[in-house]
């Protein structure tokens, strides 16, 4: 069975109760903190999906049920070629199951480990894809807040898919003072515990762009306190391999003051992105006439 892009396997599915009996379970795709993710096939109408299984007991122990609820609520409303589709969910006594779009090329993090670093063409393509996806999120008042290679999956043709909205919020954030995200990607305003806006995502894509091109994040040190210091000072140094165009873009995103950061549309229009991006858009889905 082909994993057709833009295929909508759940249109009818959405409106009825589903259970594990609706699926044939395949190989495990990965292990998460609260359970495993499996490749699965919906029996009728046939479609390939990823089935994420979360154990209620483990989530209760960590007190993250509200986070999962928010993740489901947010992701269910997002529909964009560079955001992992959330199709449906169901639960039994012990487990919660999330029915998600399958990302055949896996994690960007693993790809980066395998390749060491990415070239300008690949990185610029990711920058265009992620900027477009985040523009869509921000229009819907959703801030991701946890952009990093571990939370990015790759689609059938290698296109970026934002996954894991576990830390995302509807802006303005009610949890404004919460520290979250991996240290290396934390923007200064989150370290200082100031209120933060959707501009945290601009900082994170600046860090991401650097990490893709260099192979490690820009403020990485052996200790947390040193990393904090380097972030606060925006102590940014580029190795020779980073091109002038990429330096210009990253420097315009990694600004201490959130209002000085380059807006997403300007990232897409940036001369280095335009010169290097080879973004492919999924073919549009033929609309069925009723
Ligand atoms: P998570 O619990 O979301 O961290 O997922 C654990 C691992 O399963 C990830 O690191 C991925 O390698 C894999 N995975 C999760 N979701 C998907 C998906 N939709 N498609 C393909 N692989 C996935």
TrEMBL record:
Organism of origin = Oreochromis niloticus (Nile tilapia)
InterPro entries found in the cross-reference section: Aur-like, Kinase-like_dom_sf, Prot_kinase_dom, Protein_kinase_ATP_BS, Ser/Thr_kinase_AS
User: Does the UniProt entry include the keyword Metal-binding?
Assistant: no
User: Would you tell me the protein name for this molecule?
Assistant: non-specific serine/threonine protein kinase
One annotated GO molecular function is: ATP binding
The positions flagged as active site in the entry are 146 (proton acceptor)
Q: Crosslink Glycyl lysine isopeptide (Lys-Gly) (interchain with G-Cter in SUMO2) sits at which residues?
A: 148
Q: Which positions does UniProt annotate for ATP binding?
A: 33, 52, 101-103, 150-151, 164
Please give the catalytic activity noted in the UniProt record: L-threonyl-[protein] + ATP = O-phospho-L-threonyl-[protein] + ADP + H(+); L-seryl-[protein] + ATP = O-phospho-L-seryl-[protein] + ADP + H(+)
From the UniProt record, report the name of the gene that encodes this protein: AURKB
Q: Which residues form the Protein kinase domain?
A: 23-273
